[in-house]
Amino acid sequence: MSRQTTKRSERGSATIYAVAERAGVSTATVSRALAGSDKVAPRTREAVLTAARELNYVPDGSARALAGRRTNALGLVLPGIDGPYYAAVLVGFETAASDLGLSVVILLTGPDTDPERAVRQLAGKVDGIAFMSRSAADDALVAEISRRRPVVTAARGRIPGRDAFFTENEVTAARLTAHLIEAGRRRIAFLGRPEPDSDIGARYTGYLSALRDAGLESATTFAADAVDESGTQVAREIVADGLDLDAIVCGNDQLALALMHQLQEQGVEVPGGIAVVGWDDVHAARYVRPGLTTVAQPVEELGALAARRLAALVDGADPDPEPVVLDSRIVHRGSCGCATPGPSGPETSPDLPEETR
Amino acid sequence: MSRQTTKRSERGSATIYAVAERAGVSTATVSRALAGSDKVAPRTREAVLTAARELNYVPDGSARALAGRRTNALGLVLPGIDGPYYAAVLVGFETAASDLGLSVVILLTGPDTDPERAVRQLAGKVDGIAFMSRSAADDALVAEISRRRPVVTAARGRIPGRDAFFTENEVTAARLTAHLIEAGRRRIAFLGRPEPDSDIGARYTGYLSALRDAGLESATTFAADAVDESGTQVAREIVADGLDLDAIVCGNDQLALALMHQLQEQGVEVPGGIAVVGWDDVHAARYVRPGLTTVAQPVEELGALAARRLAALVDGADPDPEPVVLDSRIVHRGSCGCATPGPSGPETSPDLPEETR
DNA sequence: TGAGGTCATGTAAGCGCTTGCACCTCTGGG
DNA sequence: CCCAGAGGTGCAAGCGCTTACATGACCTCA
Q1: pLDDT tens digits for B128-158?
Q2: Fewer Cβ neighbours under 10 Å: the N or C end of chain A?
């Protein structure tokens, strides 16, 4: 049981024993000094820090986690990142976590991957997990994990009793649709697959309610996946079938951009013939002509809030039963056909006028 | 020193002791059975798996890492993700790592963050680290880390003796520039800050060499940061100063899109008056008019290769002194003013013709 | 001058796993 | 019928930290 006096794992890195020896103190003191603990004499602390620096000491995260019963890492589960949407969530999440001294372990759950195994493995490596969107982890799995680790969800169906974050969808979608109606549109379709509990589902609901309020009916719903091809395909369909539409609300910008582009290719004027609106305010939305009217969401903030809340839960805070809903903001550009703003443009603000709410 | 017979951390989760007890075997056997080891009798294995399932057992990652001297996690250091570029790298990296059963810990190094501390902390938590681009970790830091952990770099200045991955920049940039020259352009400027060892730096070098080969000189170099405002600003400058240019090679698409948009706003025809080409093939490139001629890079593959190599290094493979360079591919759309392809479009292929190499 | 504090540090017991080695129980061959 | 293997398990020693608790040294005040 006798410790070798100089310890140095073959892997190369110095251990806390080496630092202790070099500084002429015990490992306990090294640990305290490095943790910036209160009760260490300044001279001792100096000696320890010097020794650590000289040895290029990096504490072993696993050992620290095991002894301290805390990994100082948060997990983030996302569906396969494609758009800038998830990238922004990730940036917000990581930045916030990093500010708190926490690492971030990400897990992308593609359709082909087995989320069960991966999520469990993740749970064993972090202090808490945030589940974004319909990342392949289903409610049962999330609920189970949440029984042994703090959990928050974002832009995703709630888990009873757990913290949830959303960006506003339904009301904003209704307002966006109403905006089209005010501009005189009457035969308004929806493009996107409205799944229950999903963002697009909520947008669809808002779209329907605005129509109802105006005494209109949905012209058509194109339940298509959110990929470019869908938008292109639907545009062709509309033209080929001579569908009588004057506006299309799209579940996201990707669909809207593809749709709009193809409509124009086929000679349909946007917004003259058909108005198009999207959702997400992707980069491209401001560069196309006409500029795409869409909805900007505080996505980065969403990620940051989730991370901070998760950290608080790990520290023992109680879950907040009220979901947090972040305001979304309609960005009027040219494609909705309202009082068309001047030349659309990427300039910082003058060309992104009339941001509502 | 006597173990309690039933062990169950207060945190809630069952430990390996609980599983062992329930299955009526030792923890060693549980460990082996769960690791899918060879030397466990089928009946025993069954008993263990059943017990584990019933207790909802999730092994503690830290303990496992400490005992096994391996975290089964890889680190990925990126500069603050903005574009789709880093998102794609991340997807490739995570997917490849995940396939190997490894977790991914990401670290975003913003300009304001202290990379030193964060990178060290990361090093203590993973088996190996991939450094992307000019993520704030400088060469000295990366070199130091690489002395105690396997390290690879991607799209970044090499660290002597370490594995490096790139997408081709210089030759492709030269070909892209030559393409403009063949189309009759003579007064060709460069937009972007060409820093040594950076992607944009290499593109700039290629640009210069193509000009030299053609006996031309660089019209101007606008050394601007890769943000929208730079593009917009430069466009204004060009028009205001009446600069005599007929083509601009941009360091990336973000600059190209902003520049092109603003040029058009100010009445300059693209490509009629000035041709514009970018780099990255962002989503928006295909939706603007004219479509942006740009360069597509196998970014996701870059991430995947880095992850796989890193995993191999962790398993004891020797570093490969030869850097891996992935081919880039010029995507001709309308903005370069060559034999303008028909109506540009997002359609899968017919509208993205003449992909060279 | 000694009891009682206070401060700084050391001692050592784990944290929950993995794994080398010892041990036991069968088999089959000589 | 005995012994050498071989297959299956258990024992127990760590992995590199953190942190109660114990221990001294030194100070204060009656």
Answers
A1: 999 998 777 889 999 999 999 999 999 998 9
A2: N
